[in-house]
Model the fold of this input.
Amino acid sequence: MPIPANILFNALKHHKGYIRQQIATATPTTLPGLLKKLGNSQMDIYYGYLTPERLFEEVLAQIPAETASAYLAWLNGEYKEIILSDNSKWILLEGNVPGQYIHLHPARYSPESMRVKAPILKTAIACIVCHPRIVHPDLVMVNQIRKTILQLSPVKDLAQCQHLWQVMKMLLV
Done:
């Protein structure tokens, strides 16, 4: 998935298709390095039908992106929200990486997206990689993954896992 050079986009945090690609090649050994990139905050994951390439095309068609100065003048020190062809909403900010002046991520609670806390996403990805044929791992499996691979505290019971199941279902479908 080639990201245009001027766009700052963390696909592991924000694009279901990319996350699924990473899951397909990850192993329990490579998980800690992969999941470290997720940090500890909340994020919105786009699960719509737009491929990353199409997403970037549609974004670039709506904004002045030829130069950093044109883009930053358009932002006028704020952020902008745009709507793409599938009605998903995206936020554009000033990028903080040299050359990547367009920072892009799904809008909070946008159509075609799901708001997720990083520990839940990490747990979901790790459960899918470690137990690919199990849609609802049991409490022992979940806690073993959380403690040994993710260095996260255990959950007390499966009732606490409802959001985890939703995220796993979204990633598996």
